[in-house]
Amino acid sequence: MGDLKLQNVTIAYGPRMIIQGLSLAVHDGEMVSLLGPSGAGKTTILKAISGLLKPDGGDILIDGRSVTDLAPENRDAVMVFQKPLLFPFMNVAQNIGFGLRMLRFTKSETRRRVARILALTRLEGLEFRKVHELSGGQQQRAALARALVLEPSILLLDEPLSNLDANLRQRMRDLIQSIQTETRMTMVFVTHDQSEALMISHRVALLLDGRLRQVGTPRQLFYEPIDPDVARFFGGRNFFQGRVENGLLRSDLGVFPVGRQDGNGHLRMATIRPEDIEIAPLGKSANGGLTGRIVKTNFEGSAIRHVVTTTAGELMVLTTQDRFAPGQEVALTVSPDKIRLFPKS
Length: 345
Fold this sequence. Notes:
- It is a single chain.
- By secondary structure, the protein is an alpha+beta fold.
- The chain folds into two domains: about 230 residues, P-loop containing nucleotide triphosphate hydrolases (Rossmann fold, 3-Layer(aba) Sandwich), CATH 3.40.50; about 100 residues, CATH 2.40.50.140.
- Helices cover about 25% and strands about 35% of the residues.
- A hairpin with a 2-residue loop joins strand 11 and strand 12.
């Protein structure tokens, strides 16, 4: 089992409130990412779960049992830090088996578990190497193995990939995913990288200013943000206002069917993602739409980002087409089903 619940957890550093009334459930066998900018309180939450920090209020439960007042070694939750923190005077196998020896496992059981984890983390053949003989990725795998060998109910990962280069990060993501799939261990993964959270998680919990703003599947947070702040965090642009009247959103971008909505006759905030706006040379758009002029273009590898001025204001457009340039007149088409209308504030 590995069921985790945080109930109305509050944490303050002196007069400064860090975490405010946070409640979150992580189900057995689930990978949940705690996502947010630096300083949002992500690592603070992991420290509270692991027992390195006591909350000022609320409760933390693991498998239905309150652990808020328990010492870290009695919680069955293990934390992997941003830096590997391996013992330099031990080899890989000794580092991995250290926790088992402290728990007085037999030598045969320790060898069996270490051998299994070496294979799981792809460290076979490296068991007798010292820490200074390992690459950064190998060190991080050894730190992960040292936690996994204890078979905890909850594994807490505090930005374990942030010090690795891009290619190695991708390989480590794949490794962590495969381990989680094979072991079905409950994991809480802290990151400030939205693409990392979307790729690796069953669900994502977005933390902004010490509060959980939205929890859901990666697709829900990306395509169905609950408010403009969440949308902006996931790359949302092109925010505009409109008035809902009889199932239609009337705005400077146009009139769009939005189905049955509350707040009839009131102003509502809406957004459309840059990649959901179709761009075409002026006069060649099949569906008509807004016209504008490209004022800025940025090449981003797999896509090109344009800033377009229109009568409705400045819009950002993301396209794979490499045929537009600053100064060019273009036509923009907005699909109604791509518009996200936020709840009335």
